[in-house]
């Protein structure tokens, strides 16, 4: 009886891990300070995945803007980014950048995500440009 209970608990834990709300894709989410340290490296490609209107209102310096909600996001990323260099990606609050990070990591990019997005960057008083 005890073995059956262990088996049932093991199956339940396995299945719940498959359907939990964890990030999808092979990328690393980072807080503002770690993200800031990361992008100081010149080899890191910086990618803002918000709309052009959002990007125009302010962004992190030296970023490329590709709207992740655009149907051609993956194709545009392939034409503008280098697969041999890591990509630091962000959006407004972190939701769209996780979608972009999952897409890019599935295509073979090494991706780092700003966990709570541009909002957290601004709240931390980090430098932006227009």
TrEMBL record:
PROSITE patterns: PROKAR_LIPOPROTEIN, RHODANESE_3. InterPro entries: GlpE_sulfurtransferase, Rhodanese-like_dom, Rhodanese-like_dom_sf. Gene3D superfamilies: Rhodanese-like domain. Residues 40-130 form the Rhodanese domain. Pfam families: Rhodanese (PF00581). Transmembrane segments: none annotated. PANTHER family: FAD-DEPENDENT OXIDOREDUCTASE, PYRIDINE NUCLEOTIDE-DISULPHIDE OXIDOREDUCTASE. This is Rhodanese-like domain-containing protein. It comes from Bacteroides acidifaciens. The lineage of its organism: Bacteria, Pseudomonadati, Bacteroidota, Bacteroidia, Bacteroidales.
């Amino acid at each position: 009886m005890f073995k059956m209970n262990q088996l049932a608990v093991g199956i339940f834990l396995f299945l719940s891990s498959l359907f939990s709300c964890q990030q999808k894709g092979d990328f690393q989410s980072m807080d503002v300070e770690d993200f800031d340290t990361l992008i100081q490296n010149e080899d890191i490609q910086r990618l803002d995945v918000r709309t052009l209107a959002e990007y125009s209102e302010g962004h992190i310096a030296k970023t490329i803007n590709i709207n992740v909600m655009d149907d051609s996001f993956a194709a545009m990323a392939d034409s503008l980014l280098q697969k041999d260099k890591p990509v630091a990606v962000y959006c407004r609050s972190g939701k769209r950048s996780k979608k972009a990070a999952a897409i890019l990591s599935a295509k073979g990019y090494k991706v780092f995500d700003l966990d709570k997005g541009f909002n957290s960057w601004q709240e931390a008083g980090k430098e932006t440009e227009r």
